[in-house]
Amino acid sequence: MSIQWKGIMPAVTTKFTDNDELDLKTFELNINAQLEAGVHGIVLGGTLGEASTLLDEEKRLLTTATVDIVKGKVPVLINIAEQTTKGAILAAQKAEEDGAKGLMMLPPMRYKSGDRETVEYFKAVANSTSLPIMVYNNPVDYKVEVTLNMFDELLKCKNIEAVKESTRDISNVTRIKNRFGDRLKIMTGVDTIALESLLMGADGWIAGLVCAFPAETVAIYELQKAGRIKEAIEIYRWFLPLLELDINPKLVQNIKLAEVYTGIGTENVRAPRLPLHGEERKQVINIIEDSLKNRPTLPDYKNL
């Protein structure tokens, strides 16, 4: 296995300048904060990364820039979210050329593919690349579920190695472990049930609020891994109001506003998204400010 599917992997936000161009300076600031906190990988171009608004050349620039920033310390993954099989294969090939070490893959966009079509889509891409693949299973937001029976077929492709488990059903972690053991690694993908999923056997966490709070997120993972469950729960309980900002249609704006408060981002989003305003903005600011007032002192989680 070329990627260790474990630990905290931020689904990082894409930074934009006031002129709506890539802001690589602020982006590097945030990536370095993630590395300093001890994350285990970086995921580019997901929902939080505003993938649907990015040009192909911007995705490639983000990939090469991130590879240069991390300098091999952690693997860099890029999300594949395409409308056609041909487009997905091309995106995977470009990712490999640009130095990505793995792919996170959604089912086809726009068209609601059936089970057989979904399986053939993933297999076609897997057979076109040597990169390891994590299937992003999020039927709540993307309306296509990758079932265990479908994974039976998909796992015939050796480089399909992991699932980003976002069904919102914690018991699915146990179902996957019972069915596939360690053959299919599990990265939980929903912030508000992340610790519960890790305790039930998930291998890692593709996280959202980590973009603004990297140390707290990594601390939760490392503490539970070390068996210091009570300490992990205490941090997680403090974190929950912030984590709930991730399960919201405005998750990008919410998390980018949180990044401003922790000094590692800006509020700039790409239209049609707009920064939060009015009462909605006030509510999010209240959550962020209340959390910062009570921010926990973390143990030396890097040396457990």
Automatic annotation (TrEMBL):
GO terms for molecular function: N-acetylneuraminate lyase activity. CDD domains: DHDPS-like (cd00408). Keywords: Lyase. SUPFAM superfamilies: Aldolase. Signal peptide: none annotated. GO terms for biological process: N-acetylneuraminate catabolic process. The keyword Lyase applies. One of its GO terms (cellular component) is cytosol. It comes from the Bacteria. InterPro entries: Aldolase_TIM (IPR013785), DapA-like (IPR002220). The active site is at Y136 (proton donor/acceptor), K164 (schiff-base intermediate with substrate). Pyruvate binds at I206. It holds the Pfam family DHDPS. Belongs to the DapA family. This is Dihydrodipicolinate synthase family protein. It comes from Aquaticitalea lipolytica.
